[in-house]
Specification:
The structure holds two protein chains of two kinds. Chain A is mainly alpha-helical. Chain A is 83% helix and 0% strand. Chain A has one domain: Methane Monooxygenase Hydroxylase, Chain G, domain 1 (Up-down Bundle). In chain A, α1 packs parallel to α3, α3 packs antiparallel against α6 and α4 packs parallel to α6. Chain B has a single domain, classed as Rossmann fold, CATH 3.40.50.300. The chains are: A mainly alpha, B alpha/beta.
Amino acid sequence: MPTKKDDVYGDHISHKFNDELMELKTEFLKMGGMVEAQVENAIQALVDGDGHLADEIRANDKKVDRMEVEIDEEATLIIARRQPTARDLRLVISVIKMVADLERVGDEAKKIAKLAIKLQEEGQAPRGYVEVRHIGTHVLSMLHDALDAFARLDSEQALRIMKEDKRVDEEYQAAARTLLTFMMEDTRNISRCMSVMWVLRALERVGDHACNIAENVIFMVKGEDVRHTPVEEAEKVVGR
Amino acid sequence: MNTVNPTVTSEADMPEEMIAPVQEEKPAETIIEEGTTVGRPFSADPKFKLRNVEVFYGEDRAIKNISLDIGRNEVIAFIGPSGCGKSTFLRCLNRMNDSIDICRVKGQLTIDDYDIYDSKRDVVELRARVGMVFQKPNPFPKSIYDNVAYGPRIHGLANRKSDLDEIVENSLRKAGLWDEVKDRLDAIATGMSGGQQQRLCIARAIAVSPEVILMDEPCSALDPIATAKVEELIAEMSKSYTIVIVTHSMQQAARVSNRTAYFHLGHLVEVNETNKVFTSPEHELTESYITGRFG
């Protein structure tokens, strides 16, 4: 009886089926890594005022989109060929959903890159970069941990990410208040502060998507859907 | 083997040594605790109540202390790898195992609280209540009409020809076959296609107004279209009958049944809502089997 976590998808009678599921997992993680880098670079481009890097991010987003389509296609073929059940089915269904989340994270990175170019063109470092860096680091680690939880089928780590999301929301609220103060101090700051506000908003959304991925990991591992349920409920599911 | 009532057996005078538990050495045994089934093996409104059932082929214990309810008007699917005992268990429900000399059945098996293995019980009457459809269509080498009319005739269900005609038509209609055969009821049944023959066997089973229909891999010899028709029929019949289906096609179990029972080496490992079994089964062995990790 194979029970080791690392080969739960690799012990079918059909080796071809093993390969297909492995490929799906690998491709998803590859896309995850790509998207992670996109967000990291977007924050860097903004803080450094690096227009070239921002342009690169916008170009790379097309690759992310292409990966989404490819992974979806692969998942569809697995369903058609193999009619997966139980944990195999949960893997395939979760990947289809999580890929959509990753693609949206990619879009947020592109949005930040665009704002970075706009802010760079407007010149003069606006306020709020400290907050951007802080929240950026936070959501990046959430995204990284969510992908890691997926790779290791670690529902406890996924639960921790769900809890983190609340903190990101609080940090976002606090940062928004700070920027509002800057805008009230001097109305000439409004346009630039609004741009930074959009960046913060995009980062907060990245946190939400990381949280969605974490919820899917719990579904994959535990077989129970914890979306739209309080964290306490998810805690019970993971504890089972 | 613990709480078996030795009074209910197919052979009352069973030698003592045969009741002794058989030691199993297969590795999977370490994962299954004998007599325990995870999930929901019992029903609020049972048609069959089966308790501590054991079946022996000579010395060999093929069914090991299984307890299960089959609900009224429920479709329950039995799945499991070859030799796991699902067909053997199915055949206990209308005493089809009686014809095998070395086969003995122990435990309490009741249909509507009536003891199936009561020695005074009329087996023919039991089998009229609990009909059966087999893997390979087995029509009699007679006309289509006579195949369906056979049961009602021997059970004396129709006094007049017109009554018999009505039973034949109704049964063929219920089996979704009437429109295909109504103009050739006198044609020999063995000349029909495999799918039609199987539906004829279903019509033959329902002609004697059974309460339960047992199906032992009813679609394994049929093409996908004939299979779809039989599955459609199962869905339709579930309104008025209790249906127990043994199938090797897991997709079929997933499509047609309300509950699914997973058998493994003579044990009943898990019984659960079919939706649960195929998305998140409780037992590791069920998971391994339905995901194609062994079997």
